[in-house]
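From the thread on structure requests for the teaching lab: each student submitted one protein with a one-line request. Submission from student K.M.:

"Model Acetyl-coenzyme A carboxylase carboxyl transferase subunit beta, chloroplastic from Auxenochlorella protothecoides, tokens only."
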Amino acid sequence: MSIFSWIEDEKNLKLLNAPKSGHRPGDLSLWIRCENCGVILYIKHLQQNKRVCFGCNYHLQMNSIERIERFIDAGTWRPINETLSSCDPLKFKDQKKYSERLKESQEQTGLQDAIQTGTGFIEGIPIAVGIMDFTFMGGSMGSVVGEKITRLIEYATAQGLTLIIFCASGGARMQEGILSLMQMAKISAALNAHQNTAKLLYIPILTSPTTGGVTASFAMLGDLIFAEPRALIGFAGRRVIEQTLQEQLPKDFQTAEYLLHHGLIDLIVSRFFIKQAIAETIILYQQAPTKELGLLAFKERHRLTISQEEQLRRLVENSSNLNFSGLMKSFFHLVTGKKEEKTGLLKLKPLPFSKAFKKVPKVNKYKRVKFLIPKTPKSDIIDV
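Reply posted by the TA:
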């Protein structure tokens, strides 16, 4: 073996043994290898450069904590539902128990699950934002991830905020089975109210990788879909598609550039300019002269709690005077705690008692009464 061959072998060995770009909080490694060109990068300089390779301009993976620091205006981040944590409903076990894997990921990342949700400002504009973290079990979408995203969407809808979600996931979390797949439909339903009813803006930002059930649901439902350069975006794996179709796929298949060329995404933005691009897009949307105002029904803003439903049932059951207007006054006082009504609720046309209340046959000696809320007229629909 020549000296040059030995040097080349030693160089390749160092490249193989160098840590990859999936740097986690608390990791004391000083060097990281670029996944694209193989160059060894000093971690401190790489973080200052927003984890973009100096040699090939490749965008390495960035965890949620770093994204918050780089994307959200300083001092404006306010987390939402940060204490939610997954359980083990299926008692799943492979080489390890699912509960053990969760605990390990929580200790390594400092997160409760694979996403952080909250509100903040970008260039002084208030937004609701969700940031997925691939370092937590591959960013897989379980029941907690789906619940946090759904609550974030509902909060953004109620407050009239633009919604931004940074997607980085391997797909649905197999350890939770059908419970993880259910999140796709739940999130999509919440987005439908946010976009089509309230007419609010939603922009997903696809980072590498965005695959599986995340791609098949909220990642592709944006009003505008942004992506980072050369991000891996797809549903099934490359080899699965090749074996199914019995065809050789292009080299750039499932990259952001390939999807942009075929019309599946709208814009590829470098990490250096994503904050400015989002801010300018929101301003353009807010100032659009032909923008359609969103509508939300009044009754959707004030839902009854379980205790209020039970109090209402007892109120109807024990009421000697079944006058509709008097009952509505009592109902309003029950829900709001106010004696006088100022929201136009009593302006609803009274219905005959037989239509407003429907008696159900007795069950276990308890009388059950079903309360049917009259339809809300257009005059009680408020703008968002």
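TA comment: The chain has three domains: 3-48, 64-294, 297-383. Residues 15-21, 297-301, 341-384 have pLDDT under 50 and may be disordered.
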